Amino acid sequence: MSSTGVVASQSERIDVLFEELAELTGQRNAIDGRIVEIVAEMERDGLRGVTGARSAAHLVAWKTGVSPSRAETLAAVADRAEEFPQCVAGLREGRLSLDQVGVIAQRAADGSDEHYAALAATATVAQLRTALKLAPKPRPEAEAETDPDADPQPEPDPGPQPSVTRTSDEQYTSWYIRLPHVEAAVFDAALQSHRDALIADWKRDAEKFGGAGDQRPRLPSLADAFLRLVYAGWDAEAAERPHGQRTTVVVHVDVTDRVGSLHLGPLLSDADRQYLACDATCEVWFQRDGRTLGAGRSTRTVNRRLRRALEYRDRTCVVPGCGATRGLHAHHLKHWEDGGLTELANLALVCPYHHRAHHRGLITIRGPADQLVVTDHAGRPMTSASLARPPTQPPPDVAPCSGPTGERAQWWWYEPFRPQPPPSVN
User: Fold this and answer.
1) Beta strands of 179-288 (E only): which ranges?
2) The dihedral formed by the CA atoms of 42, 47, 50 and 51, expressed in degrees to the nearest 10
């Protein structure tokens, strides 16, 4: 066969393979789009809470067996699906990939759906990232335009003042910290130092699990670093106090009605009372008919030797699909107030989220430790295996996706997305 015939044969073969690749790519994109819709529906209707998953990304990584980074992308697209309907429609129709829409959902400003949906039809993921970097950053509210007819009232500037504000809702407490640049630089350096230490531990854990999607711990965040910074200061202060104790939580419990309250504080729910008595430095005072009977043991923390044995046995949070390895609590399988002993057979390592979820009834952890059973809100046994199985339905019927053109972008011709100013009110 001549060289011309060989080249023609290879070209025809490549065309056939590319055609199949385009078909499979479109089907894969459409499947990812349907997964996004399912995750968005579960978040919208509050269904995730009964599964025992810490977050939407954790649920996706657990139940689909994908990597944490891909699960974060799926969760990000699901979270902003209503803000980017055209981009999500392109994903559902197989025209856009999850990575393309994920970059947009994770970084794009509100109101830019039409702009980036058109750009994603031809741009690669790297080009979309560049386009998003070129977009103007939103101005802080303090720099917003004011009424030009208003008379300015200059006030003396006291200089930057540190401040801390706190807000709470039913699930979370939010702290807003405002620091001058000098103090902020010190805080940033300390925060980054603790995050580097957490990441070093995370890498060791990731190598231990070999990158398995359902066991690999999530990458430590700045919130984790902030908590580590708090704990470090707390431990340093505790070492200087008599007997090396931490701050003690004092709880008053009525032995007749099993009603507990904080010292000079509000009543506690059954879940919070059992949570505090499980693995915390907690001083419990027993009362009957308003009279103090005496104090219980002043601490529920596990000693170092028992903690090491527990960590060697469980290694991670015992809740299937979790895999958390940092900040784990030693949970009493039979509650301390019910006579549960602080011994290895009655203890299990759980992450803070699942520890509270158990005491609130969202999941159930039953022992002894060698016969551990974990069930969800409906009583279904939880397993670390993903839901993947051989398909029984045909793939989605969508148009083939040939992908972006991949041509060199001429950025001097590109017009970045610019948010429209709100209409003025006369």
Assistant:
1) 249-254, 259-262, 267-268, 282-288
2) -10
Residue 62, burial from CB neighbour count under 10 angstroms (0-12, 13-18, 19+): buried
3-state class percentages of the chain: helix first, strand second, coil last, to nearest 5: 45, 10, 40
Residues in the chain, overall count: 426
**For the chain, percent of residues with pLDDT exceeding 70:** 71
Supply the pLDDT for residue 116. 92
Cα separation of 284 and 95, whole Å?
62
- Residue identified by tokens 């065309």 is 15
Instruction: List phi, psi (to 5°) of 354.
Output: -75, -25
Cα radius of gyration rounded to whole Å, the chain: 28
Rounded Cα gap, residues 322 and 307, in angstroms? 20
Tokens found for residue 51: 């599964």
> Cα dist. 122→97, 105, 119, 125, 134 in Å?
12, 17, 6, 10, 17
- Which residue do the tokens 């690669």 mark? 124
Cβ–Cβ under 8 Å, residues 174 and 167? yes
Q: Locate tokens 């279904």: which residue?
A: 380
CB of 76 within 8 A of CB of 106?
A: yes
**DSSP at 7:** H
If pLDDT is split at 50, 70 and 90, which confidence band does 247 have? very low
Model confidence over 165-186: pLDDT tens digits?
888 776 777 888 888 777 777 7
Q: What is the pLDDT of residue 426?
A: 56
- pTM here? 0.61
Q: How far is CA 345 from CA 198, 240, 332, 368, 383, in A?
A: 30, 34, 9, 6, 21
Tokens of 173: 């407490």
Structure token pair of residue 239: 């070492």
> Given a cut of 80, is residue 15 above it in pLDDT?
yes
Range in 243-247, 357-361, 393-397 with the lowest mean pLDDT:
243-247
Residue the block writes with tokens 């032995």: 255
The CA distance from 388 to 397, in Å, is 21
Which residues, listed in sequence order, are joined to residue 366 by a DSSP beta bridge? 373
Task: Give pLDDT, residue 142.
Answer: 45
Contact (CB, 8 A) for 29 and 94:
yes
pLDDT, tens digit (0-9, with 9 covering 90-100), for 22-63:
899 999 999 999 999 999 999 998 888 778 888 888 889 888
Return d(Cα 330, Cα 77) in angstroms, integer: 35
